[in-house]
Specification:
This protein is α/β, with parallel strands linked by helices. It has a domain of 164 residues: 3-Layer(aba) Sandwich (Rossmann fold). It contains seven helices and eleven strands. A six-stranded mixed sheet has the order 7-8-9-4-10-11, sandwiched between helices. Strands 1, 2, 3, 5 and 6 form a five-stranded antiparallel sheet that branches. Helix 5 links the parallel strand 8 and strand 9. The longest helix is centred in the middle third of the chain and has 13 residues. Pfam families: ABC_tran (PF00005).
Length: 235
């Protein structure tokens, strides 16, 4: 039996009469990179927002580290959903210092996370002058400040050039050895299959597949089969 850091049971979210996700049952093993895959509009972001308390489930349950999810668990969860929450007129260090003050963390943590994401040499350069890849890495640094056991990244390679993608890929792969489980949401299969250990494929708001990312079946073929089987009208 796998040691799970996160599990959802019959997780559903509706907006009025529209069902965004239905009966999602994720099983995320500890100290792995879990790829949450699916076409645009499939329900990935809605699912992640429920895992982080940004949306309240319509029904179902979430278990974190063996117990029912509670808002206090957010102290063990790092999140980067959509754009990095940066003050563009501040340097990387100043952005991080604002967060350490808010979270009551020691200032020494700033140097630790800057080293982790390879942004120690940015000096007085303001975040608004960063490349997209540097902004994404600073966003991840912010998410790492509280020593999370679970890191949730929603489409982190969007807008990155090949070098930025490679750097981010190597960074994500390094986290499980540090005791950090990663949930990585994406629709770009070629990027995901190089970093993930397990995958879940969502299409039409339904989890159509969950298992090892390194099975016998080709990931692209599997993805297309699941997407076709659960495609909603209008997608």
């Amino acid at each position: 039996m796998k040691d799970l850091i996160l599990e959802t049971r019959s997780l559903c979210k509706s907006f009025g009469k529209q069902k965004a996700v239905e009966n999602i049952g994720l099983s995320v093993p500890r100290n792995t990179v879990y790829g949450l895959l699916g076409p645009n509009g499939a329900g990935k972001s809605t699912t992640l927002k429920m895992l982080t308390g940004l949306l309240k489930p319509t029904s179902g349950s979430i278990r974190f580290d063996g117990h029912e999810w509670h808002r206090r668990d957010l102290s063990d969860i790092g999140v980067l959903i959509e754009s990095p929450p940066l003050y563009e007129n501040l340097t990387a260090r100043e952005n991080l210092r604002v967060r350490t003050i808010m979270l009551g963390l020691p200032e020494s943590r700033i140097d630790e996370v800057l080293l982790t994401v390879d942004l120690t040499g940015t000096g007085k350069k303001r975040a608004g002058q960063f490349s997209m890849g540097m902004k994404q890495r600073l966003g991840i640094a912010i998410a790492l400040l509280n020593h999370p056991r679970l890191l949730i990244l929603d489409e982190p390679t969007n807008g990155l050039d090949p070098i930025g993608i490679q750097q981010l890929r190597e960074l994500i792969r390094s986290f499980p050895a540090q005791g950090i489980t990663v949930i990585l949401s994406s629709h770009v299969l070629s990027e995901v299959e190089q970093v993930v250990d397990e995958i879940g494929i969502i299409a039409g708001g339904v989890l159509g597949y969950q298992g090892s990312a390194h099975g016998e079946q080709d990931l692209e073929t599997l993805f297309m089969q699941v997407a076709a089987a659960h495609r909603r009208a209008g997608e």
